Amino acid sequence: MNVLKNLVGILDKVQKPSRYIGNEYNAIYKKKANVRLCLVFPDLYDIGMSHFGLHILYDIVNSSDFASCERSYLPWIDMQGLMKENSTPLYSYESYRPLREFDVVGFTLQYEMSYTNVLRALRLSNIPLHNADRSDSDPIIIAGGPCTVNLNPMKRFIDAFLVGDGEEAILEMLDAVRSGTREEKLRKLSTIRGVYVPGFSNKVSRRIVTKMGKAPLAQLVPYTNVVHDRAVVEILRGCTHGCRFCQAGMVYRPVRERSAKEIYDIVSNVVQRTGYEEISLLSLSSADHSQINEIVSLLKNLDDTSVSIPSTRVDAFSVKLANAVSSVRKSGITLAPEAGSQRLRNVINKGINEREIFDALEHARKFGWKRVKLYFMLGLPTETDEDVIEIGEMLKRVKKMGFESVSATLGVFVPKPHTPFQFAEQIKPEEAWRRYKLISWAKRFAKIHFTDPRKALIEGVLSRGSEDTCKVIEMAEERDLVFADWGEMFRPDEWFEVFEECGIKVEEVMSAKTLEYEFPWDFINVGIYKEYLWAEYERALNGILTSDCRESCTKCGVCMNFGVRNVLKGKGKIVPMPN
Amino acid sequence: MSENKKYLFHYKRYGLLRYLSHLETMRMIERVLKRTGVRFEQTQGFHQRMKLSFGQALPTGIIDLSGLFVVSSVRPIGKEFIDLVNSVSPKGFEISNFEEVPKDFKLSRVLNGYEFKMLFIVTPPLDMLETALKVNNIWIVKLYIPFNSSVPKNGEFGQFLTLRSKALFSEVQVDQSIGSR
Predict the structure, then answer these.
(1) Nearest to A12 among B15, B35, B61 (CB)
(2) What is the CATH number of the domain that holds A114?
């Protein structure tokens, strides 16, 4: 079946029809393949097309000799309604075939608030929501992405999870489902390293690629103005700073860098094949690349192409770096001190002091940036009212430096699984509102944006949930709580009703825990010892810093457990394996 | 001495690409041109973009058989450029020809308007019926729309398809036609 004919009548009636047409430059439609995979980003196309992980897998699978990969995204509400009216199922953007006709449908779980979107995508595809209800004629539903480090809330809906890097495992997974009954396929999948199959597996260890693989060069070029409308080169994966709140910093270890020369070759090739006018250097912290100076000077040779560095540290070097690559108007610079007081920055192991922050800001002002945006978190472990007030003091000082405009975003800290702060509690919305009020006086100096603490709480419950949370996801989707991350679609009261009806004790899930506590995600081995996380938590409570593991091994367990190591390209450095 | 040359390009945009907005079409064309590897003049300022000017914007959903844009290349380009540009274009976009124009050429000065065709599978409104042509079971209504006047939206009169079929020029300030297909 091909749904293209149905689409013609529908597309005239929706907002931004270009997000539903596919046919992008560099899209690949392989007509013949033994195994057909459709990767779904469970959110709007405008968001999903900006996700680089999907592009990596698309390239790998389509380069294989036995499998094909197509894509799909969750249509916006207007399109969903019209598709239902016209009996048009969710379809792929390459062959316009319904998802149900694929051998494998893969979801990427990038953020917890998209869980209900996964169920909506299955519903629009007429695929049974529960893995237990699927038969041999249904596709195998797989999922990957950072949220799989606690896969429990999606356990009843997904047939096989991949925890960790997908570059190698995806082909092994597709090979495993070439033939056999559904049960045989699932059994084979459960033997692959990094794969967890509910009902077949008891535990799982994160899959890691030891070095950066081939980069996608012929990147898809969307027509729609997507969130990150630019070419991408992943310059390094992993981060060694060890910020204690940061899940990505823990679960993407170790660091694996590409060399400056390789990055330059990739960028030149990608620009030529896509026609993009901007390229983004993707990483968790670009300034940490051991050859970053070399990379920047090489990339300056590119004609008519600007370079953006989205993730940088808060220090003068990073600001100088941003200045060096910046060919655009210096309208705004964003820095994330995370906490207002030095005491609290030490608690979270942010590794920067006040002098460094103001040095960075001074450089930004000197280089011509007129607007500065700062990110902070509220409710970090041990936070006192004085710490919160210090955020306001910092904003006052920044404004006095002479910036035209200062803005600050304050979010509520969520204790994520597999971080040292997984043992910490999350503050309740009413407490968050009280703390917000403590700095309302600083509105004279900065525009302060408070993110909704109820959203943080829902995110917390979904990220820390056990298998019982599956009921929540299902009921929430039935009540149309989809696109939950979108302001206009966010209905917090209904979420809390669902929690209550499903018997989820929010306070208990979000309360402080001890080392002995058995987390629902303890069976997922991301490589870091639980004892290490606990020790880090205790160091946090005592305000003790832990060094960057490039300087000396912190014995977190990743290198020892998985036989890997940080791969740094500068000066041919490879950090030795710890004893 | 500068070798910059200014060109008027004629393009077709059809199939699924009829669902692109004007801005999306502009961005797509800029990227198609960049993929050719030929250097075109950029705008000045902080955020450099390709210097392109277009004919009248179209609402989404309309097939465009008479799209126009003007661009200056850093060096002269020859007729082989058509094959090059079409080889790096997505399905549904095609450059049909291009011609060199004087440096002071402005589309707004030479473009009188466009011819549109509306296709009906039901009887068109009465005031259009007189001029409508019936081919098999399809009614075709032609409309002349002066430059910068309001354009019929897809489905506005009950038509199932709308095409911008022809660009009508007052005088053609063309130095020399270079290539066509």
Answers:
(1) B61
(2) 3.40.50.280
